[in-house]
Amino acid sequence: MDTEAQHTERDRSSHPADSEDTSDTPGTEGRSRFASVSRIADRLPGGRITLTVLACLLFLLALSTWVVQPFDIPSGSMERGLRVGDRVLVNKLAYRFGSKPQRGDVVVFDGTGYFGSADYIKRVVGVGGDHVVCCDREGRLEVNGRSVDESSFLYPGNSPSDVPFDVVVPAGTLFVLGDHRSDSSDSRDHLGSPGGGMVPLDAVIGKADWVLWPSADFRRLHRPGAYTRVPARETSAPVKTDGAHG
Question: Do 122 and 178 contact (CB within 8 A), yes or no?
Fold first, then answer.
């Protein structure tokens, strides 16, 4: 903005403080910051190019630590939708501001102490308070008394589960399953382990939102509509809580 003065001379005796504040200080601070950056660059091998590279690396580190992070798919437990070698982008802010995982979300979580010393990717089937049963009379998964049609994402030829289970998901935890049920170690396999096969909410790293690689398969991951009709469980309803390992 053009700030050329209207008069060539000022009466410094009337407003000495104003004159100094509006002219000298901002320019001095800006030059001081520029000089500091220049001194840092001069001390680095490669000068400003090295400083720029370091700044970009720090930005990427902060981005992957708090915002988004790519994850490789290590196994076939989430086929048919996610194959070995696929790379997904995980939104780490999805559940950080009051939002919680919903049934049908694909989440990445730290399985240390619950599943094993690694990060896992599975689909949320039950949230805190849900009554999850397999299977109903037609061989389908049942959540809070409502049968769920998983045919749109379940691996072809797989049943919802090869073994029966009947669980109530404790508050603050998730019940998770792989889409390739016959090739997935998930909540079913850990019902008798510490934590009962449930994943604590604070162990969830984030929500898998996009498939980044291979580029020909680039797409967004959407929550299946099969879970939208599942009602909240009535806590007064009697339930069974025993289950078998997968």
Answer: yes
Residue 192 CB coordination number (10 Å): 10
| Domain 67-227: assigned CATH number | 2.10.109.10
The Cα 175–Cα 128 span in angstroms is 8
Mean pLDDT value across residues 48-76:
63
Residues 6+ apart with CB under 8 A from 102: 124, 127, 223, 227
Against a cut of 0.90, is the pTM above it?
no
Q: Using CA atoms in the order 131, 132, 133, 135, what is the torsion angle rounded to 10 degrees?
A: 140
For residues 152 and 145, the answer to whether their CB atoms sit within 8 Å is no
Select from 56, 60, 65, 111 the least CA-distant residue to 90.
Answer: 65
Predicted local distance difference test score (pLDDT) of residue 192: 85
Q: For residue 175, list its beta bridge partners.
A: 126
Contact 106, 90 (CB under 8 A): no
